[in-house]
C-alpha cells in the first residue's frame, strides 16, 4: 500500500457572511473555492492545521 499523508485545512467564514465553500484535491494540489452568495464583500481565513501529536 502506498504511503499517504493527511493535511487538514481550517476554512473560516464569518457567520454573518453567506458563501459557498468547496475544496478539491487532485494530483498533489488543493483548490479552495469560495463563492459569495451575496454582493457584500466577505472576509475568510484559510490556514493549514498542524498535525496532531499522538499519545504514546
What is the CA-atom radius of gyration, in angstroms? 15 Å
Sequence of strands across the biggest β-sheet: 1-4
Helical amount among residues, as a percent range? Answer: under 10%
Question: How many β strands by DSSP?
Answer: 4
What attributes characterize this protein structure?
single chain; 56 residues; mainly beta; two-stranded antiparallel sheet; two-stranded antiparallel ribbon; 4 strands; 0% helix; 46% strand; elongated
Task: Describe what you observe in this structure.
This protein has 56 residues and is an all-beta fold. The chain has a domain at 8-43. It has strands spanning 8-12, 19-26, 29-36, 45-49. It is elongated. It starts with 7 loop residues before the first strand and ends in a 7-residue tail after the last strand.
Give a quick precis of the structure.
The protein has a domain at 8-43.
Question: Could you outline the blueprint of secondary structure elements for this entry?
Answer:
Elements: E1 8-12, E2 19-26, E3 29-36, E4 45-49
